[in-house]
Write a structure and sequence with these properties.
The chain is built from three helices and eight strands; from the N terminus they run βββββββαβαα. The protein has helices at residues 87-94, 115-121, 126-131; strands spanning 4-10, 22-29, 35-38, 41-44, 49-53, 59-64, 80-83, 104-107.
Length: 143
């Protein structure tokens, strides 16, 4: 799959699951499309909806960006960090000339070393472990 601009929001550990830190940036996908790479992290999901951080198992929401700029849940709040490299493309997609600096904070997004995560993805039972469906004795490999 080709890289895409997505909305990414951390759900784990935040009241109501609607106020976690959020980003807009370019994500990359594994060959299968089940792993999403962004900001030094890898997430297991289907490219849209809930996904888990491969290392921490934190829950994230990953979705396409909305042309009406209402990416946060209606009950959520807080500014959205936006990758400096996608600002112009994002403005073109949503049809605005400028972004409200109170709602969007330009940031540098870290590259992701995809090979770092290959060791996890090829282990038996890993899919069930990271999805949260299995809480057994799976132990991720040592660094």
């Amino acid at each position: 799959m080709k890289p895409q601009i997505k909305y990414i929001e951390l759900k784990s550990g935040y009241s109501g699951h609607e106020n976690g830190p959020a980003w807009i940036g370019m994500v990359e996908f594994s060959k299968s499309g089940k792993t999403i790479y962004f900001n030094g992290k890898a997430f297991r999901g289907n490219g849209h909806g809930y996904a888990r951080d491969i290392e921490t198992r934190d829950l994230y929401w990953i979705s396409g960006i909305k042309k009406n700029m209402q990416d946060r849940h209606w009950a959520g709040s807080g500014p959205i960090m936006i990758d400096k490299t996608v600002i112009d493309e994002y403005k073109q997609i949503v049809g605005v000339r400028e972004l409200d600096p109170k709602q969007y904070i330009p940031v540098d997004i870290a590259p992701t070393d995809k090979q770092k995560f290959a060791k996890y993805e090829n282990l038996p039972g890993w899919d069930l472990y990271v999805s949260g469906w299995h809480w057994g004795e799976f132990v991720p490999p040592e660094e």
